[in-house]
Description:
This protein has helices at residues 2-25, 43-48, 60-77, 130-137, 147-163, and strands at 27-38, 57-59, 84-91, 101-109, 115-123, 169-177, 182-190.
Amino acid sequence: MRFTSALPVLLLAAALCASQSVERNQTVLLKEIRFSGDLGLSVDELRENTEFLSGHRLERKKIVEDASSAVGAALRHQGYLKAQVTPQLRSLHSSGSKDAEVRLELTVKAGKQYRVRDLTFVGLSGQLAERDLKQACNIRIDEIADGERVGSCITNLRTLFHQKGQDVFVVPSMMFDDPTSTVSFQFDVEK
């Protein structure tokens, strides 16, 4: 008898959980994006990197992930290698409505803008001239540390070794010197 009286409560609880899950994953129309915090870049620059989301009906999760990723990449491209982005969606209209509209609020903590202090190579890199390795990386000492260039460096080093008949992988590491806002990159080339 107790089991049958508990069954409707369990069914109701399961239905509520399912409806909340659907609501969280429902598609919404992104109407507005706001930025706050230690931005590192201008609001216009940040907006350029997120405008592709505005005015489109997307799942909440996709909006949050894509916006965080785009802003984080833009900041890393400008030397903010430790930047943090915290997204939050706010409903502009009833969230139960089919025409739900939201505002995305991105809180940014850009942190320090790092410059390149040093660039070194280890592992199999001794098989090639350092000048060739540095040219492949296109990362200069004292320039703003660009996260995109690090990715390109890895690809270019792999290509350089592949042209020499070697399949390698490249493991980058970064050593930060916070008092001077510099970072040293080391690329370990291995078979």
